[in-house]
Specification:
Structural class of chain A: alpha/beta
Helix content of chain A: 25-40%
Radius of gyration of chain A: 18 Å
Number of domains of chain B: 2
Strand order of the largest sheet of chain A: 6-7-8-3-9-10
Order of helices and strands of chain A: EEEHEEHEHHHEHEHEEH
Number of helices of chain A: 8
Largest sheet of chain B: 6 strands, mixed, barrel
Radius of gyration of chain B: 30 Å
Oligomer: heterotrimer
Order of helices and strands of chain B: HHEEHEEHEHEHEEEHEHEHHHHH
Largest interface: B-C, 56 and 68 residues
Distance between the termini of chain B: 27 Å
Distance between the termini of chain A: 11 Å
Strand content of chain B: 5-15%
Number of strands of chain B: 11
Strand order of the largest sheet of chain B: 3-4-9-6-8-7
Shape of chain A: globular
Strand content of chain A: 25-35%
Chains: A alpha/beta, B alpha+beta, C alpha+beta
Structural class of chain B: alpha+beta
Largest sheet of chain A: 6 strands, mixed
Amino acid sequence: MLLMSQITKSYTTSTVETRALSSIDLHVRQGEFVALSGPSGSGKTTLLNIAGLLEPTDSGSYHLDGRDVSSLSDRQRSRLRSELIGFIFQGFNLLPDLSVLDNIELPLRLRGVKSAERRARSTKALATVGLSNRASHHPAQLSGGQQQRIAIARAIAGDPKLILADEPTGNLDSAMSEQIMELLREINRAGTTIVMVSHDVEHARRAARRVVIRDGRIQNDSARAVPAIDVAHPMATAMPLAMT
Amino acid sequence: MFGFLFNSALGSILRTPVLSLLAVVTIAVGIGVSIPMMTVFHHMSANPMPTTGHTLFRVSLDSWNAERPFREPNDPPPVLTLQDARNLGEATEPVERAGMYAAQATINPNEPGSRPFKVSARVTESGFFAMFEPRFLAGGGWDVRADAAKEPVAVIGPSLSQRLFGTTESVGSQLVVNGRRLTVVGVLAPWQLTPMFYDMQNPFAEVEELFVPLGLMFELHLVPEFWRSPTTLPAPLSHANFESLFSSGDIVFVQYWVQLPEPASAKSYRDWLDRYVEGQKALGRFPRALNNRLDDVAGWIDYTMKDSRDAGGVAALIVVMLLFYAVCLFNTVNLLLTKFLRSQGRTCVVRALGAAQSDMFLQYIIEVSMLALIGGLLGIALALLGLDAARNLFEHGSAVAASGVASTSGTDGFWRMDIPMAITCVVLALVGGVAAGIYPAWKACRVSPASGLKTI
Amino acid sequence: MNEFPVILRTLLRNRAAALLTIFQVALTLAVLVNVFASSDGYRAAVGQPMGIAESGLAAVSSEWIDIEGSRAPEGTDADAFHKDRIQRDLELLRGIPGVQQVSVTNGFPLSDAVPVRQMRIKRDDETSFASTFYVGDAEFVRTLGLELLAGRDFSNDEIRWSADPNLSEGAPVAIVSQALADKLFPKGDALNQQVHAGDRLLTIVGIVKRLPGLHPLWSNVELSYVVPGVRAQPLSRYLVRSEGVAIDEIVAAAETALYTAHPQALITVDTQAEIKTRTLSVAMSTVAVLGFVCALLLLVTALGCYGQTTFTVTKRTREIGIRRAIGSTKSQIVSYFLIENWLMTSAGIVVGVLLTYVLNIVLVQGLGATKVTPGMIVPGVLFLWLLGLTSALVPALRASFIAPATATRTA
């Protein structure tokens, strides 16, 4: 589903260059639930942004759903975003002037889906998150947990193969968080790949696969028995992964 | 997709109402200020004879002296001597023809106790009415026979008729012009010419309220307002020598127009004019090289506007006004930068959900176009106010100056907003607005989608 | 001020936004200075009395019209008839209470309707000076309130009556304006010299300080001369000076008196000030329009500077918070933004001076505008500096009130 090898990324402000990611190798298979964790500033969000085609990489190769995306134009990347990926943000990022249903329809609209089908799919997504009775509400009328469920509905409305979630429970209390996590696991069980950045050790632990990032490198990946730092030659592990 | 972008653009306008309003107002003010002068210029250079103008020709013969041209670089005088006007008139070449000039005439009302007053008169021939086809409320122009017989007739305008006789049905009444009794044979309908193409000494002038036969010019002592002599006059112009100076001398003052059967006849008529001048050269006249002109209405307006101080002045004013508009647009750019900066967070979300940079650019341009369109429409309203204010300002002075009859219609024509000018308003607003929007839109759509997602 | 290089570097990094303000200021300066230059002559002409005591002066014209179109009533001698008519008009006007002097002339100063003749030293001189030609009686100089610098006024026996517009048979003397005397005789010895005026040879018997001519905007407006005499013609013009009575009352009284005497004549009575205003009406309207546009322009530019500073302050709220947190005083924040604005305005002024000259070339051709001089640019530059700083002040002050805590609040 998602195959990164030797990804590096640095940010240049006027004078200083900050390396955000260096030599990241990551392979996520279809249907996996991956939790990215690590201290703040470690590069989790950058990795997620790159995975979601929101930012370009400096070097390395990235295949998404079997396609090399490193050399795509902005328009092609935007198209892929709307077709393959659903985003869930910490701050929900619902558009305040659109109704709940319009918010959910937004990615479908951008993809050019006809209005009848749009309506059908967004209604179905809204039912999945259990908020059908809120269709014509506006985001400001909903609680944080409800807003995040709407954001999830927006993410799944287009039947994406991959959901990228950036601290989806960061702004919610623990009871709410539990609901959201349950919802995500349910979506994952239905076959959608999920990559989630999470501060919460508890949530991260309950994910099937846990990847820990520190200082822009993968420090630990539960899919591999041995911690990455123990590997003498990082390339040695990257090679077989790249061939799968 | 377009529908969505359109809705987003509309939403964006409503989300930042103050900035949107300011952007609209700056565009509108720029348009409102630029358009009035452009309107005047548009009317000044308009062709008031769209259907027949290409068969009507102004004749210029270079009868000036050998030493220097009438006007640099080598323009012939725009008017003829009375002798040449008569010679051309007697020839049978054109379909219609008329010599003419403008003069001030004094009218003595019939009623005792009422005071005499001056009016602008056009001294001309029967061909004037046949060529320029003014509408009549009553009667008509005089005929060729009246020209030849020097009949004491006159055609008057509607307001003069009202003033003298209290009605526009005054055919057959008599009026006293410069002491001579003339019989009214026709009353014109209100007639607006913008510009007054047949004269063009003053393109802003109003159509005269009094038309009298050219044959009566000496009898009525109608001294032309514009005349020039290529040689020093033997004696200064006085009441006594007016006739002798103007009928036989080299003084040029007759504006001469002909109508030809079709535009293609111009060539042969020009050749004929050249042959006429060659013939006169043999008699010792026309010391300059052949330098005649034959301009149709549009050509004549172009030719005279080129040297017109009025046109130059208006054009210079337009330059200033357009620069003002440019300053307004710089302001609009600033406003749009701020406006688009505020919508950055939203742009990031929509980008993350799959909108391409080019989609966002298009959305911003749609937004700017809508603002510009409103600005243009508001600009039309402001321009109407501006036209009205400028008219009051410019015509106040001339109204005070004009003793006698002012036509009821005024010179409305120059200050009138018409469809082409309204379209110009909107186009100018759209072009300016979109030009102002390109940079802010480009800058705003290039923002990295990741940058705005983290902040709440 | 030690922040100067930092401000400059920040500006250079945000070139595009800075360029906007720079061009706006440049265009504004160019338009402002050029409008000022174009209307300079107009405004000067309106404000100046140009040597005549304008207030208290009325201009009366009377045109005798005969129903049959002849120059004088049947059976009378035209010249004698008009001489008599004019003399009776003069008597009538002098009889109006408050009228101090009345003069008969051939045209009113600055009315755009006075003849012009070429003045030369020798008959066949190449150089000649187009000068306004007045015909006046012995009261002319006093009625206009002209200041006689040298020589004498006309004597009564020099005033002859003639139907000839050039007064060819009149006394061959003239009073000239100082400006004309200096043109003809740069050495300053004009008095008692002879000059050719048109076809006539005249002796300069008097020099007046100023005598305005045909048109206030004409370059030769100061070149004028008067010859003694009265034209006995159907159209006569009188200058009336009042003392102690409002000029409007004199105007009304003159109109009534003349119309009563000649019901069939064409009488117009104006004040001299009205005549000048009318001559200048189109120019004045143009100045009014341009002035209005300039005021709007300054408003728009002030808004632009205000908007620009507001924009930077909004964008850099956090930065300002940090500056405050690490110890910047409020006045340092204010001066930071004022210096930034001043730098942009100054850059705009540099570009603007170039633009001013370019635009001036266009306008000199189109409007016949005055050439721009450095003396006109300097006030414009000072004004724009002031305008820029004033409009940046409000957002700069607002910036200084940003709390230092802003720095730590959000990521």
